[in-house]
Amino acid sequence: MATATGGSAGRGSWGSSFGFILAAAGGAIGLGNIWGFPYTAAQSGGAAFVLLYLICVVLIGLPVMFAELSIGRATHKSPVTAFKALAPRSAWWLVGAQGVITGFAILAFYSVVAGWAVGYLYKAIAGEFSAGLTPVETQQIFHDLVANRQIVTLWTFLFFLAGILVVQGGVHGGIERACKILMPLFFVLLIGLAVRSMTLEGADKGISFLFNFELQRIVDNPKVILNALSQAFFSMSLGMGAMLTYGSYLSRKENLPWAGVSIGMADTAIAILAGLMIFPAFFAMGGTIDTLSTYREEALVFVVLPTIFDQLPAGQLFGIAFYALLVIAALTSSISLLEVITAFFVDELGWKRRSAVWVFGGAAFLLALPCALGLKITEDMSFMSLLILIFFQYSLLVGGFFICLFVGWAWKPQSAIAEMTAEGKTFPGLPFWSILIRFVCPLVIAIIILNQLYTAWKG
Ligand code: PHE
Asked: Within 13 Å and on the Cβ side, how many CA atoms surround 191?
């Protein structure tokens, strides 16, 4: 009966604005922050990437976030139904449909990585990382885990089960309640680990790797811009209707732009803090920039960190804390992905929440199976990397592009601004936001997608 923040009858709603911010920040903060951000920063020259990332967040991420939250709250509907409500008898609902499909696919590969994290948490608790490991040995541990398909499937399954159980409890009783416990725990663990890492001897190299901006590095490598934008979309959960769906459970009493800024700032701060947890420890333990850029995606979190924990005093404890943190972050995000899919079947097709969660959570698990089982499409591409390529690199940006066009040109910025300023709310710079959402955001996103396609095509 949580009507404090509104929503249309029967759909459920957030119990408080703080609960909403925690849940939405929980959805945004995930593997993208702890795993993706440090990895992409390592690949893309550190500080140069960080600077571009911040620019992408402010100039593109936040405007799209405002757009999604406004569509969601204006309609109190999940993506497909929301576009149908605002633009009846048009094809805009396809943008929502693309979002639901994207959520489905992301949930599949995301849960497998989360499954690895569960496996590592188990290993950390069992003390497997505390026997003077060499990097070659930790590499082997990772390979053995991934190659042990039954175990990966089991961890992935358990991870799915946890998400399904939370989402079936509803927006207020399930998601919000879980995030209110998990997110504070997450913050405590992260701050503890970052402080430990930054107080190690030699940690300053890691800090300057993240903050010592050398503009030349960006000019040298334009791909950094692309990496920064895809990473910002993924990390802020934009372009597939997650923020739209979470916004649909809000009442008009809420100040939407401020909520958007809080979520975006929390997400960015956590990504940077994750960098401050990983890089100082990495450099302090003798890592170098040259080795850093040679790591594969999974290496930083699953191969390099275990060797570092092993060298730290009370390393086992830090190992347990770190993998617990990773699992929590992944769980609150996968909940938001599952919620987008569930809300679609509830709003659009009138399903009961419980049935929708189990049927489509189950279906997403089936899609996760080929990822967990390491299915290969070609000699050097796995099914999982294909999903990541399509849905991480392209789909979110394409979705974001159409959301900008919809709000900028079909629904019109004035309507979104009326929604954002409902009940006398104010936010500075909304006319500037109109310009961003109409011209700057779609143009930049389009250039970046086309450039990416062109480079991929040229091979
Ligand atoms: N933002 C999440 C993360 O950083 C991933 C995600 C993307 C969640 C899109 C929902 C929607 O891990």
From this structure: 7
Q: Provide the pLDDT confidence category of residue 227 given band limits of 50, 70 and 90.
A: confident
Ligand 1 centroid–CA 76 distance in Å is 21
Helix, strand, coil % over all residues of the chain, rounded to 5: 80, 0, 20
Is residue 235 in contact with ligand 1, taking CB distance under 6 Å?
yes
Ligand 1 pocket member 234 (CB < 6 A): yes
Give the tens place of pLDDT for each residue, 116-175: 999 999 999 998 886 677 778 888 899 999 999 999 999 999 999 999 999 999 999 999
Cα–Cα distance for residue pair 174/193, rounded to 1 Å: 28
Picking from 362, 291, 429, 338, the residue whose alpha carbon sits closest to that of residue 106 is 338
Among residues 393, 430, 426, 333, the alpha carbon closest in space to that of 63 is found at 430
3-state DSSP assignment of residue 164:
helix
Q: Tell me which H or E stretch contains 86.
A: helix 79-86
**Does the predicted model carry a pTM greater than 0.70?**
yes
Give the amino acid at 450. Answer: L
